[in-house]
Amino acid sequence: MTSAPHLVVFTGSGISAESGIQTFRASDGLWEDHPVEEVATPQGWRQDPERVLAFYNQRREQIRRAKPNAAHKALAALEQDGFQVSVITQNIDDLHERAGSRQVLHLHGEILKARSSVDARLRYPLAKGGIALGDVCDKGSQLRPDVVWFGEAVPLFEEACELVSQADFLLVVGTSLAVMPAASLLSYIDYDTPCALVDPDADELSPPGVLAINTTAGEGVPALVHQWRKQGNLILP
């Protein structure tokens, strides 16, 4: 339905944290015992690929055990009601898809896929298990996690910018708006496009002109979606 209101949702680690997935910056986060340089950079990969693979295999199993929460499900329900919902996520999990969302753009890749270390076009789903040293692509090169590491380009950024520019409403959920270039997405909305941030620290994080909704994703997103489904439009209550 091309005339349906178009909600573009930009999600970060805060929405996945409510499903039990530890966040990058949390004090008890999974990354805490692993310096970023060791497990999430091209340099770390070159120095010790086995350690990087083990780290992502651990995260992959955690994500497989996690389940979509109320925020993921609410966004999928809005789409099922006929709204156009495009999700842009910084998260590498598949919780939006498992909740039922069909239009999901993963800015930073997908942990449940492997890809060639010499040809990024060669991607392979990981229905189970992980990646071991010696697992190779069709070109004979070592497989790596299909994620964007620090210091690497974000291939889908331009596509995300185009989506944001088409939004009737931009909803930001669970992100500190600190990781670039993703944080600059807000600059691509039309000047009169409404934008809201749902986060427990929204007052501190919201840029000028962005409505701060100080609550968790699991509470704030379903409340907004309930109102929008009732109204039939993307208007703030």
TrEMBL record:
Substrate binds at Y56, R59. NAD(+) binds at Q90, N91, I92, D93, G174, T175, S176, A217. The active site is at H108 (proton acceptor). Keywords: Cytoplasm, NAD, Transferase. The keyword Iron does not apply. It comes from the Bacteria. It is an enzyme of class 2 (transferase). It is found in: Cytoplasm. Residues 1-231 form the Deacetylase sirtuin-type domain. Its EC number is 2.3.1.286. 2 residues (Tyr-56 and Arg-59) present in a large hydrophobic pocket are probably involved in substrate specificity. They are important for desuccinylation activity, but dispensable for deacetylation activity. Belongs to the sirtuin family. Class III subfamily. NAD-dependent lysine deacetylase and desuccinylase that specifically removes acetyl and succinyl groups on target proteins. Modulates the activities of several proteins which are inactive in their acylated form. HAMAP family: Sirtuin_ClassIII. This is NAD-dependent protein deacylase. It comes from Vreelandella lutescens.
